[in-house]
Design goal:
Elements (H helix, E strand, L loop, with lengths): L1 E10 L8 E8 L2 E6 L5 E6 L4 E4 L1 E3 L22 E6 L14 H12 L3 H7 L7 H9 L6 E4 L1 E2 H9 L1 H4 L6 H17 L3 E5 L19 H14 L3 E5 L11 H15 L3 E4 L9 H9 L6 E5 L4 E5 L11 H7 L4 H8 L2 H9 L7 H7 L6 E2 L15 H8 L3 H9 L1 H4 L3 E6 L7 H7 L5 E2 L16 H12 L8 H8 L1 H6 L16 E4 L5 E2 L3 E6 L3 E5 L2 E2 L1 E6 L2 E5 L2 E2 L14
Parallel strand pairs: 1-4, 1-5, 6-7, 7-8, 9-10, 10-11, 11-12, 12-13, 13-17
Antiparallel strand pairs: 1-2, 2-3, 5-18, 14-16, 15-16, 18-23, 19-22, 20-21, 23-24, 24-25
Helix pairs in contact: 4-6, 6-7, 8-9, 14-15, 18-19
Protein name: Amidohydrolase family protein
Pfam families: Amidohydro_3
Length: 572
């Protein structure tokens, strides 16, 4: 008798095969049978025709701090993720000399917008070396499996001190020491090494991430650690990833291709559409292709931008009346004051004497600022849905309209400001990226960008928008969407024991009501250590999530079970 049998499921198995009816049996955390007539089970779940997919494998998260205190790892766990990979973009918390803790926190806070006070209170620092960090992670059960990567920023600072933190050139001895640390980390179970070269990534003091200007001898020298072990992925946030430079990316891809050939390991890099060169991504995709290439562009399934609101950032944050009278008040009091006709008139009539960069950016982007209407946010809004277009259609001033929109839902209303992946006000280019044979799905940034972005809900967008609801262009086959989030992401990191529903595979599974699966509207919580804030987003339609055959979520609520473990290295 099997431990668990899920009967009458509509299986989407992760291979790209069309859905088919089957029962799935599980024993000892592994799938034992996939057929229409599985035998009895100690526990039986009647799927009643619901979708059964592999658990989702999210390869781009930043739970490096949160994983040390939080066993749930929401919001990713609310969206069917059963394996997460962290340590991306060259930032993380190991290795860590005792006198560099505050600096590492400032690095993560600046790059990934995770409140420094939360990290300072939440992290207990039970390690110095990267293997010791993995040991600490292994001691904490959680809802999902977790893999870690060795971050360049922490390694450079550990070896070079202030010289490394300030991006001074590395000597041959520095490079040898960094290579040794990376090799030690990967040998202990790290899934790879990561670095950042984009100028958009800066520490809280404004300094670029250590490694931003690293020369090829350093980048290739560290990569030798992966070659010698024949293990690990080399992940890069490249120059131009955020649109800050449209001339360098082709050269970036060429050297990354040489890197992949030199070390014989997969190299994955962030790829997004940028407004300054909206077709550049196609050239980068072309340069990544080839039967001998090991380059894997990491793409997102929706626009990459910010959520605008009174609890995040907005267009009036630098207006004198708001700054002097309202900014520090609790939200209910702030909303009540902003609804006062006199306060409203004063704020709208003002022009800030010294503009805040982000507030000014919002004011200058009203033609691409879109209300997230209702409880089901639309991540592919039409141009006519922008604040500027709505205001023009009704003869209103767009800033007045924005002011009133911010006050809806007692000041909790949010608007979407796409900065990348939406140059044409359409997701047609994103669809092309998602169908490219070299692309892998990523960039959800679970655990990061707590104050402005909530893209950890990307798996639910993939199911609801791309496989079911899209109206402004072609959809994607359900089986393709599931494969992108399961087999393909697992395979990149050598996690061949999961990502597919088949006998012998790990029983990480999602049971989903496909007609009902959808994102709810993002909301701000203040539940991080020290009362730190974070944007989260729940979902509907996830009937059950299993990790190693143990149910961790039922109808979106945690069951109390914590079967998730640290993943050490590739899993053949």
């Amino acid at each position: 008798m099997d431990d668990l049998v899920i009967r009458n499921a509509r299986v989407v198995d992760g291979t790209g095969a069309p859905p088919y009816p089957a029962d799935v049996a599980v024993t000892g955390g592994r799938i034992t049978a996939v057929d229409p007539g599985a035998g009895p089970g100690r526990r039986t779940v009647d799927a009643d025709g619901a979708l059964l997919t592999p658990g989702f494998v999210d390869i781009h998260t930043h739970y490096d701090g949160q994983a040390t205190w939080d066993p749930i790892l929401a919001p990713s766990s609310w969206h069917g993720v059963t394996t997460a990979v962290m340590g991306n973009c060259g930032v993380g918390f190991a290795p860590a000399r005792p006198d560099r803790h505050a600096w590492l926190i400032g690095l993560m806070e600046g790059v990934e917008d995770i409140p420094g006070s939360a990290l300072a209170e939440g992290i207990t620092w039970e390690w110095e070396s990267f293997p010791e960090f993995l040991d600490a992670l292994e001691r904490t059960p959680r809802t999902m499996d977790l893999g870690a990567q060795v971050p360049h920023g922490a390694v450079r600072a550990y070896v070079m001190g202030e010289r490394g933190a300030r991006n001074e050139p590395a000597t041959a001895d520095d490079i040898a020491a960094m290579k040794a640390i990376v090799k030690e980390g990967v040998a202990a179970g790290a899934l790879g090494f990561t670095t950042s070269r984009t100028l958009a990534h800066r520490a809280i003091d404004g300094e670029p991430v250590p490694g931003t200007y690293a020369a090829e001898d350093e980048l290739f020298g560290i990569g030798e650690a992966l070659r010698e072990l024949d293990a690990g992925v080399y992940e890069i946030a490249p120059v131009g990833a955020a649109g800050e430079d449209v001339n360098s990316p082709p050269d970036e891809v060429r050297w990354m291709r040489r890197l992949a050939e030199a070390i014989g390991r997969p190299v994955s890099f962030a790829l997004l559409q940028v407004d300054a060169a909206p077709d550049l991504w196609r050239e980068l995709m072309r340069l990544s292709a080839g039967t001998d290439a090991r380059l894997y562009p990491q793409v997102a399934g929706r626009p990459f931008g910010m959520l605008i609101g009174l609890e995040t950032l907005h267009a009036f944050g630098d207006h004198p009346t708001y700054v002097s009278e309202l900014a520090l008040r609790p939200l209910p009091e702030r909303v009540a004051r902003m609804r006062d006709p006199d306060v409203r008139a004063r704020i709208l009539a003002e022009r800030p004497p010294q503009e805040d960069l982000l507030a000014a950016m919002v004011r200058g982007c009203l033609d691409r600022l879109f209300p997230l209407d209702g409880d089901r946010p639309d991540y592919e809004p039409a141009p006519d849905d922008s604040v500027a277009a709505r205001a023009a259609a009704t003869g209103r001033d767009p800033l007045e309209m924005l002011y009133d929109l911010l006050l809806e839902d007692d000041g909790r209303n949010l608007l979407l400001l796409p900065l990348l992946n939406y140059s044409e006000r359409s997701l047609d280019p994103v669809r092309e990226m998602l169908t490219h044979p070299r692309a892998v799905l990523g960039l959800g940034d679970g655990g990061a960008h707590c104050g402005f972005i909530c893209d950890a809900s990307l798996p639910t967008t993939m199911l609801s928008h791309w496989a079911r609801d899209r109206r402004r262009g072609e959809k994607l086959p359900l089986e393709h969407v599931v494969r992108l989030m399961t087999r393909d992401t697992a395979r990149l990191y050598g996690l061949e024991d999961r990502g597919v529903i088949a006998p012998g595979k790990k029983a990480d599974l999602n049971l989903i009501d496909f007609d009902r699966v959808a994102n709810r509207r993002p909301e701000m919580l203040y539940d991080l250590p020290a009362g730190g804030r974070r944007l989260v987003q729940r979902a509907d339609g996830y009937l059950a999530t299993f990790v190693s055959g143990t149910q961790v979520f039922a109808d979106g609520e945690h069951t109390g079970e914590l079967p998730g473990r640290l993943v050490r290295g590739a899993r053949p």
